[in-house]
Amino acid sequence: MDSFKRAPAGLRSFLFAPGNHPRRAEKVFQAGADVVILDLEDAVAVAEKEATRAKVVTAMKKPRASLGYVRINGVDSRWCMGDIEAVIGPWLDGIVLPKTESADQLRLVSERMSEAERRLGMAGGRLDLMPIIETALGVESAREIAAAGPRVRRLAFGGGDYTNDLDIIWTPEEHELAYARARLTHASRIAGIEPPVDTVVIQVKDTERFRLSALHGRRAGFAGKLCIHPDQVAPCNEVFSPTDDEIDYSRRVVAAFEQAEASGSAAISLDGNFIDYPIVYKAQRILALAARISGKAAQLVG
C-alpha cells in the first residue's frame, strides 16, 4: 500500500476559474462543483502569470466546500516548475497538467511535487496529479499516461485543443470525439484508475448543448466533466448522478439477486430483464456512487 491520500471517487464537476481574479475565485467555490480548478495557464495573460501564483494560494487557504486544484502551465513552458514550487502546500488538493503527451512528463512533475512536499514537511504524495489529454499524441499515449504513477487518479479530456490539433469541426453531436473518448475510457480501465473527466463545452450560454455533451460523455464511460462557467455545474452534477429511478431499480436488482443466490440461482428475471452478475455489479456501482454523492451533500449541509 502506498501513502497517497486519494481524492474521493464520485467526483462529477470540475469548475475552472481564472486565478488572477480573486473575487471570482472566491465565488466559484460556492457554485456547487465537486472540484474547483484555479487556472494559471490559458486564462492568465503572460504578464500576470507569476503574480497570479500568490493570489491562487490565498484563495486556496480560505474555507471552501469544494476540493481545490490548480492548473499549472505545461511542462514545455518556462513557468511550469515555478508554478509547482509556488502553489504546493497543505491548502491544495491537486495539480492539473495541461497538454499532457507522455508518461515522462507526469513523472517529472510528480518528482517536483514530491520535492516540494518534503521541503514543506507534508506527507509524501498527498496531492493528486490530473493530466489533461488534448492532442493527437496525448490520445495515442493515453494508456501509458494513465499508468504513469500513483498520483494519477483520473485523466481529463480537452476537446478544444484536441479539435484544434487535428483541425476537426466540433459539432453538437460530437461524433468526431468518439475515438478520443474511447481511448481515454479504455486506458483508464486498463490502468485501474477512476473513469476519466470529459471535455469542456465552450458555448457557456448554451445549456442544452452542455447537457447533450455531458450525456455523450456519460454514455461513453466518463464519470464527470470539466466546466468553465458556474451555470454548467448543476446540469453536470445532474447528468453524472444516478437518477431516483436508477437507484430504485438497482436496489431491487441487488435485493432480488441476493435472494436468488441464497437459493442457489445466479440468473434471474426482473421486470422482463435478464439479471446475472454483470448487471448486479453495475447496480452495486450505481448504489455506491449514490451513497458517495449523498454523503458529500450531508457534509455540506452539516
Brief digest:
By secondary structure, the protein is α/β, with parallel strands linked by helices. It contains 12 helices and 10 strands. Strand 1, helix 1 and strand 2 form a beta-alpha-beta unit.
How would you describe this protein?
- The chain has helices at 22-28, 49-61, 80-87, 103-120, 136-140, 142-146, 159-165, 178-191, 207-219, 233-239, 244-262, 277-301; strands spanning 13-18, 35-39, 67-71, 94-97, 128-133, 156-157, 197-198, 224-227, 268-270, 273-275.
- By secondary structure, the protein is an alpha/beta fold.
- The longest helix has 25 residues, at 277-301.
- The model is unreliable at 1-6 and 298-302 (pLDDT under 50).
Counted by DSSP, the helix tally is 12
Helix amount, in percent? 40-55%
Distance between the termini: 32 Å
- Percentage of residues in strands: 5-15%
Mean pLDDT metric: 91
Explain the layout of strands and helices.
Layout: E1 13-18, H1 22-28, E2 35-39, H2 49-61, E3 67-71, H3 80-87, E4 94-97, H4 103-120, E5 128-133, H5 136-140, H6 142-146, E6 156-157, H7 159-165, H8 178-191, E7 197-198, H9 207-219, E8 224-227, H10 233-239, H11 244-262, E9 268-270, E10 273-275, H12 277-301
Helix pairs in contact: 2-3, 11-12
